[in-house]
Model the fold of this input.
Amino acid sequence: MTKHFWKAAGATLLCTSMLAGCSSTPATGSSTADSAAGSSAKAGDTVKIGLNFELTGQVADYGTKEINGAKIAVQQFNAREDKPFTVETVEFDDKGEPAESVAAITKLIEQDGVVGVVGPATSASSIATYEFATSKQVPVISPSATQVNAMLKADGTPYEYAWRVCFEDSYQGKGMAEYAYNNLDAKKAVVLNEVSDYGSGLAEAFTEEFESLGGEVLDRSEYQSGDKDFASFITKIKDLDFDVIYVGGYYNEAAQIVKAAKAAGIEKPIIGADGFDSADFIQQIGNDYANNIYYTTAYTAIDPSEELSKFIEDYKAAYGEEPSMFAALAYDATNLLLSSLETSGATGAELNEAIKKADFSGITGSFTFDETNHTPAKSVLVVELVDGVQSNVKEVSVE
Done:
């Protein structure tokens, strides 16, 4: 942890200015929402936070890594001798389904009395929680809900109690276009994306930026989540004079696309977004095929800081593997919630105000929030896979 996270003054504030404690059940005569909105966290209290993640289903690797990262943050907080209160987690598996995520946020707030929620990993499941959480004045922090305008309501204003610690897809799509054009000397591309807000947002941002730089997109194709056969796509593009293949999608389908391209003898770079950032992606394609692949990410373990080294050490000790970008983002999201609880000494509106005003320094970057869309401005990192290992990281700034 950096000193920025845990200020000694916070403990004094919490011990001297609190009138009531948080509990797992509402105060007599109050609803859970009223209790969360108007209570405080004082020395000796146990404060509950919700962890809502995709622990089973198509994107379980993301959710599992994120809940693991969140737990490391909580463990480190509870291990502090000067901790102002003890944190208890309440976990929910939303299975990667928005309807399940709605059930999760309802239970976590109404039944479990959590004061804030971290997760889910994916945009659709995250967005599904924002309206209810805002109506109950319980902040939700999404580690990786990258969808364009995910934090905005239909009228263009942000959900008051919804936040994210990741950049959005338009930003990373543009970042990869900049990298491909300027660093890979790519002037012609083919684009393949999943039929989803995530995939379409990535493809559109990449295409727009790539063409604005002077590049040309020779073909754009789409696929459905769960598709496994990409032979027709490979046949269509194989004889085109392209420099890169841009894939906008998640790791399962991306792995099949890489394998199909490599098996067909295509040696051009395959580039993509943070959906590639999964140990399962490497496992599915194999280390021999995991070369000449580039993707955008918010995190890398290359040349780690002291804080990052501590996180990696604790994560490996707990789970026996290296943490991914998703674990790191959830770690930061959880620390943002916990530090805001500590500095505000309160829940509900006061806690939300502390999040809004946070000047946060984490292992995936330092930031303040843009209050118009509750999204931080962060640099995009591009990493290259060399025999399945992240290498040659490059920071890309996007206007």
